[in-house]
Design brief:
By secondary structure, the protein is of the alpha/beta class. The chain has six helices and seven strands, in the order H-H-H-E-H-E-H-E-H-E-E-E-E. The protein has two domains: 66 residues, Phosphotransferase system, lactose/cellobiose-type IIA subunit (Methane Monooxygenase Hydroxylase, Chain G, domain 1), CATH 1.20.58.80; 159 residues, MITD, C-terminal phospholipase D-like domain (Endonuclease, Chain A). The relative contact order is 0.17. InterPro entries: MIT_dom_sf, MIT_domain_contain_protein1, MITD1_C, MITD1_C_sf.
């Protein structure tokens, strides 16, 4: 577990995602130190393992896999069961009132393999349903290119108006230099999805299973990294 976490730290470091890589370095080193301490003379890890020792090892490995500093979820190609509610529910506590979404590709549905405006709408629906009491959503994205810009603006304005009917304010900003995909909640949780909100595959048809229920929709392969701000440091 420690080696895998350090490997992930190097990947993030190379990608210039320094805050997250620092957290993974911290966790990986901590995990390795835990193992070193447990393999000393007289330790059950250094002798033949009894059932009790094996059970203790399983518990320790379970603690490692959860991560002291961060949690990582690997979504395999064509996997199902990763709808937004399943992925985010444990972080959307009742105190969450403000959400930040940074994704450069919240654009119109004309793109052949992307339904990103619909994906963002589904994400907003999840926030409205609770149990959190979201009042403000901040979206930072990039402009659609060419003729799709008008449709992008029209779609976002419609979502904005609809959210207003539920007492939620959607603030929209555009940046031509945004690359990272990140979702933050004001309770301190930060979720980074390799593909942003666009990790679902295009449905086979409008009347196919998975078109409405994202838990049944096959996914693209991606990695989800979850951090808490108490373990991150400004570089």
């Amino acid at each position: 577990a420690g080696a895998e976490t350090l490997k992930r730290a190097v990947e993030l470091d190379v990608a210039s995602r320094f805050q997250e890589s620092l957290v993974c370095y911290q966790e990986g080193i901590d995990l390795l130190l835990q193992v070193v301490k447990g393999t000393g003379r007289g330790s059950p890890w250094g002798r033949g393992r009894s059932r009790a020792h094996a059970g203790r090892e399983r518990k320790l490995l379970a603690f490692f896999s959860d991560g002291k500093y961060h949690k990582q979820i690997r979504i395999e190609e064509n996997a199902t069961g990763f709808g937004y509610e399943k992925l985010f529910h444990e972080y959307l506590t009742e105190i969450v009132s403000e959400v930040w979404v940074e994704d450069p590709y919240i654009r119109h549905i004309h793109q052949a393999s992307r339904y990103l405006l619909y994906n963002f709408l589904r994400f907003c629906e999840m926030l409205v349903k609770g149990p959190c009491k979201v009042k403000t959503i901040h979206l930072l994205t990039s402009y659609d290119e060419g003729s799709g810009r008008n449709q992008q603006m029209s779609g976002l304005e419609e979502i904005q108006q609809s959210l207003r009917n539920y007492g939620v304010t959607l603030n929209i900003e555009f940046s031509s230099s945004i690359h990272d995909r990140e979702i933050r909640f004001n309770n301190g949780w930060m979720i980074k999805i390799g593909r942003g909100l666009d990790y679902f595959k295009k449905p086979q048809g409008r009347f196919s299973i998975g078109y409405c229920d994202f838990d049944l929709r096959p996914c693209h392969e991606t990695t989800v990294d979850v951090f808490h701000t108490k373990h991150t440091k400004k570089m």
